[in-house]
Amino acid sequence: MIKCDRKRLNPTATVMIAISLSLVVLLSLLYGYRPDLFDSVRWKWADRIVVCGPDVPATDGVIVIDIDEQSLEAMGQWPWSRAQLAALLEKIAAMKASAIALDFIMAEPDRTAAMVAHANNVDLHGSPPMADSPKEQRQKPDEILTRTLSRGPFVLGYSFTFDGKQRNQTNCPPHPISIEPPGSTSRGHTALPFFQAQGVICNLPQFSRAAAYSGFLNGQPDADERIRRLPLLISHNGAVYPSLFLAALMTDMADTTVTVQAGSGEQPCLEVGPYAIPVDRKGRLAIRFAAGRSNLPHISAKAVMADQVNAASVSGKIALVGLSAAGLATTYATPGNGRYTAVEVQAQAIETILGGSHIRRNGKMVLWETLLAWMAALLLGLCVSRLATGPFIGIGLVAIAACWGGTQLLFNTRQVLMSPLLTVAAITINGPILLLVTYWIRQNNAHQGMHEALVLMKSSQKELDSIITTIPDIIFRLDASGRITFISSAVVRYNRQPEDLIGTPILELVSPEDREKAFYRINERRTGERATSDLEIRLNISSSANNANGHDRYFSISAVGIYASPKARSQRFIGTQGIAKDISQRKQLEQQLKQAQQMEAMGSLAAGVAHDLNNILSGLVGYPELLLLDLPENSPMRSQIETIQRAGKRAADIVQDLLMIARRGVEDHIPTDINRTIGDYLKTLEFKQMEKAHPNIRFEVCLAEELIPANGSSVHLSKVVTNLVRNAVEAMPAGGTIRIETANRYLDTALDGYERIPEGEYVIIRIADEGVGIPDELLPRIFEPFYSKKRMGSSGSGLGMTVVLNTVKDHSGFIDIQSSEAEGTRFEIYLPAARNAEIAVKNRVVLEDYTGTERILVVDDIAEQRALAVRMLSRLGYRVASVSSGEEALTYLRKQSVDLVVLDMVMPKGIDGYETYRRILELQPAQKAIIASGYATSERVRETQDIGAGEYVRKPYTLENIGLAVRRELDRG
């Protein structure tokens, strides 16, 4: 039996108790005031306690109606028409479900059903189509669902927002509930600090008015991405609203009153009918999840619609309807390594309440946990000085097991969750520290005199050797002449053994370019603040010149001189000692950062130049088009004007290259057939002329059959092919073969080529030549703007490869290059595949498609731009007026109205396009507008479109692009 003497504490025991209690007090303060530091571990331990608790039998009061893959296969892709959804809900209601909750939001009118009815030439009920307007056809399915919602115990879902944006605030208000604190008759007041919402995303107003109940869908996983709690109530605009699961439960009980019990020190509780629901201080319910998948009963919506469900399995239960199909359902990780869909989380919350399987944790738990940790610390402090290491560790392990078992037993019997984290942490942290302190005290008292000094010196030498062995940096020592006398084993990383370098002059390892600055500083004589620090040089410490791992890598050198005597007058220099830290990766990152900054600066310059050039080019592109419309086909002037027009368009193409450098020129991507893009390029006059100019070059084209589409811009991808083919031609002055290929490829693992290409499915464009190749030292620079090894003026603008790189990156793609001097080069462009995407067919447009007679106001600060836009739009039949600033536009619109505003985005001398349109909407809330700018699409353009503006038209204008944009916006409903 182990006995502890209580009558007298020796000094060691007193020190141990003081250290142990001090550590646990510090730990307790952190635990109490910064619980977020412990959340991750505490949650894992709490999850383990809950998962190891007794299984809770199901209440048979909840059922989940799944809109799963089988339902989508039978009834069509989601979203279904409102008529289909109404039919599903009516069948559930007919089976006598006590409450039916919808775990999704229907915020927009139904369009799907109208399209289906039109395609089938019948209405939703199978009758011949009626002569209704498109708007009335869209409203019918919504009216069907509205009638269904008004006739049953339906609970709609909505979502609160907390970002300050007010959404659907007044059109479709959700259903608040009454809150009654005990001892108070005031409504809408509670002592609990519920979450305060600022906005709401709601269903259509007619749905919200038709349904008698609704509840919010908000839920937030914890920091470890596992969901454990859901709020029951959220405040908004002075009222309190229930969650979807609480609203469904209240619908089942036909009771909309909640009583709040928030006693001091006790866990808050919400009383709803016969149920007392324990919550935390924010009004959140801790949900009891089953391990793995949800064990609640599920029914497929397909089975309901096919009348394959026994009504008894639904009768009297709360039914929750939600999405479980892959790709549509939101899933959450839960304690016990489970995966629950959003509707299953709501259903499990109801099951927790119905079954009374609550997880209880009141405000006193932290106090009890702290007291238990202090008791454990006191026990450790008393026993550590009197016990050997083995028994002490045994007591600690027993204490940890007892703590864990006690908290598990408390939860199993009382459903009270008390975390053992603080106590276990106190034991595991205090134990080793106390052992170390005790060991140090015993060692300090055990060694005396010279023997102790000798032992400590030998121990220190061994520890130093051990530390040096584990340090990844190279530690070295030189003699007075600069020869290596010691070098640490870190050089093994560079295929050199330390013994092979002993006696080697250190300067022989320094790259020749850096030897001059390293001559004195690496063989350092100085000490103190003047000694060498952070000297960056290149060292070649590899045993082979072909081994890039150690060939000319950058190192940061710190060195200090060594002297035989510490006395100033008798100092004798005996050598240098120092440390070399490999900084090659840092230097590479610095170089990449420098290149990125250069590209950013070049991009800003390119964007500004492009804007100014687009304004200048408008006349060269627009006026020739207007002149050609008025000239007869046989006019001798047509060829000259067409030449001017082609020159303007060519200049506009170069401007687009500048915008690509700025990474601001890529339009929205659509599914694109790469084979068609390449085929269209091969038919261009540019390619035909190049093929004719180089008869000694043969082109082989091998395009893969059944090529998967890729999301992208055909225009920009055509530029990639154009630039790569042009470079291949110029790399083959003696002739040869250029091969153009496409292929599908799936990478099971990442591919390390010119850049790292992650695994995935790709469409590949491959262009290979038999030319002069690219030297290894030039490969890193080939994508730099204006960098070229070609003779000045021989070809191109110097932007071709930069355009290639930026286009590929804007398409989320990758580039692999394989090149050998005198053998040729192969470029492979990897574009992410868009499997199952449909490629849009562009309809042919004629002039009559974009003419009109409406009134249009042109707002532009440049007179030439206004004049050109007025002439073009007038030529199309519109009645056009123009102003030179946003302020003038506001003055004009106060006096008279127009059908459309053509709005320039950048007007330096006044308010810009966004501010102009925002103020126009204050005058005319329904005013239509399109945006025009010489810049590419920017954040300011997107903000303007977010508040109601229509299409974006890039300058220089052409009759077709401005005419189509105007016509589409005027025709928009």
Task: Please describe the topology of this protein.
Layout: H1 11-33, H2 39-51, E1 62-67, H3 69-75, H4 82-94, E2 99-102, H5 112-120, H6 134-149, E3 154-161, E4 178-180, E5 195-196, E6 199-201, H7 205-210, E7 213-216, E8 229-231, E9 233-236, E10 239-242, H8 244-253, E11 257-261, E12 269-272, E13 275-278, E14 284-286, E15 298-300, H9 301-305, E16 318-323, E17 331-334, E18 338-341, H10 342-355, H11 365-384, H12 389-414, H13 421-446, H14 449-470, E19 474-479, E20 484-487, H15 498-501, H16 515-518, E21 532-539, E22 553-563, E23 573-582, H17 584-630, H18 637-661, E24 670-672, H19 674-682, H20 685-693, E25 697-702, E26 710-712, H21 714-730, E27 736-747, E28 751-752, E29 756-757, E30 760-768, H22 800-810, E31 814-820, E32 824-832, E33 855-859, H23 863-875, E34 879-883, H24 886-895, E35 900-904, H25 913-923, E36 929-933, H26 939-946, E37 952-954, H27 959-971
Parallel strand pairs: 1-15, 1-16, 2-3, 2-16, 3-7, 4-11, 5-9, 25-27, 33-34, 33-35, 35-36, 36-37
Antiparallel strand pairs: 3-6, 8-14, 9-10, 11-12, 12-13, 17-18, 19-20, 19-23, 21-22, 22-23, 24-26, 27-30, 28-29, 30-32, 31-32
Helix pairs in contact: 1-11, 1-13, 4-6, 8-10, 11-12, 11-13, 12-13, 17-18, 17-23, 18-22, 19-21, 21-22, 24-25, 25-26
Query: What's the helix count?
Result: 27
Helix content: 40-55%
Principal-axes geometry comes out as: flat
Largest sheet: 7 strands, mixed
Rounded average pLDDT: 80
* Termini gap: 90 Å
List low-pLDDT spans.
Answer: 1-7, 115-133, 183-190, 544-550, 791-795
Count of β-strands: 37
Strand residue content: 15-25%
Q: Give the radius of gyration.
A: 38 Å
Total tally of structural domains: 5
Coarse structural class:
alpha/beta
